[in-house]
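Take a specimen:
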Amino acid sequence: MMHEQISSFDFKPKLLLHCCCAPCSSAVIEKLKDYFNITYLFFNPNIYPEDEYILRREQFEKLGVKVVDLGYDHNEFLELIKGRENELEGGARCNICIAMRMDRAFKYAKDNNFDIVTTTLSISPHKNAEFINITGESLEKKYHIQFLHADFKKENGFLRSTEIAKQVQMYRQNYCGCEFSAKQNN
């Protein structure tokens, strides 16, 4: 569906790309840069601790891109997922987190006159692209901004992101972001 959406434009649309981290974003940027005027949004209050958040944000410099950072408020994430701390990665806690970050991206896009929105989250083999796309469709209706459907892990997207991260000597984290996924992966 993504290719049909991209080819439907007769101009280079203004895309807001929600970025979870620079390594995952690298292959997505490579895939989309020729088709869109991209603004990179970094909104990830799930990341813990704050030093990790800063380190991940700084890695975008190795890709030569600047990100719009909506700030770090980890308590916002903790309040939202309260009672779901012990769930496994990929469950309801993750879906709540993904939906929250995508909603904020759409709000930013609406407030700043973007044509289309997408997220790099579907590049992860640990993230459910179907859930991400259904969430995007819902937010498209709520905010009246087009959502770019994607499963960026397809066509070796995740593999390509690891190759790029190695090439530019980028820090690549070993957990999704929150303390609960870090605990599960250790």
